[in-house]
Specification:
mainly alpha, elongated
C-alpha cells in the first residue's frame, strides 16, 4: 500500500508525464503549419504532390489531438459552460469536477478502450498500411493513438479526481 507521500509523488510523476507528452506533441503544430505550406507550394507552384506527404499531415493532426488532450485537461483548457461554474465556490467546483470525472470522463475512457481494442489489435495483426499507392505503411501505429487518448485521459482523470477529493476533504492540493 502506498503511503500518502508516495501517492503524492506518484501523482507528480503522472502529472509530469502527461505534461511532457502534451508539450512534446504541441511542437508538432509548428511542423503541421510548415508541412501544409510546403504541400500548397508544391501542389500549386510546381504541380507536384505525394500521397505520403499528405498522409503525414493527417498523422500529425491525429497525434497532436489525441496525445495533447490530457494535457489540455490538466491545464483546464477544454471548453466548458462557465455560466454557473465561474461563480461557484471552490468546494462546489471541486464537487462538479469530481462527479464529472467519475460519471462522464472515466466511463467514456473505459468504453473507448473496450471498443477500440479489437479494432487496433486487428490493425496490428495485419500491420495495416495505407490503401493508397505511395501512402504511409504505418496505419497500425496511427490507430494505436485511439488507445493512447483514453489511457492518458484516465491518468489525468485520476489526478483531477484526487485533487478534487482533497479539496472536498479540506486538505491542500499539491500544486507540483
Amino acid at each position: 500500500m502506498n503511503s500518502p507521500g508516495q501517492a503524492t509523488g506518484n501523482l507528480r510523476v503522472l502529472r509530469n508525464v502527461i505534461a511532457l507528452c502534451g508539450k512534446g506533441v504541441a511542437w508538432l503544430s509548428l511542423l503541421m503549419v510548415l508541412l501544409t505550406f510546403t504541400i500548397v507550394v508544391l501542389r500549386y507552384g510546381f504541380n507536384l504532390g505525394w500521397i505520403w506527404l499528405q498522409e503525414s499531415l493527417t498523422y500529425l493532426h491525429v497525434t497532436v489531438f489525441t496525445v495533447a488532450a490530457a494535457w489540455t485537461l490538466q491545464l483546464d483548457g477544454h471548453v466548458r459552460v462557465d455560466i454557473f461554474y465561474a461563480v461557484m465556490t471552490e468546494k462546489k467546483r471541486a464537487l462538479v469536477n469530481f462527479m464529472g470525472t467519475l460519471l462522464f470522463l472515466v466511463p467514456f475512457c473505459i468504453f473507448l478502450l473496450i471498443v477500440a481494442w479489437p479494432y487496433v489489435a486487428s490493425s496490428w495483426r495485419l500491420l495495416e498500411s495505407s490503401r493508397e499507392a505511395g501512402g504511409l505503411p504505418l496505419v497500425f501505429l496511427l490507430k494505436s493513438l485511439i488507445l493512447i487518448l483514453p489511457a492518458l485521459l484516465l491518468g489525468q482523470a485520476f489526478i483531477n479526481a484526487s485533487d478534487a477529493w482533497k479539496i472536498l476533504r479540506n486538505t491542500r492540493v499539491d500544486d507540483s
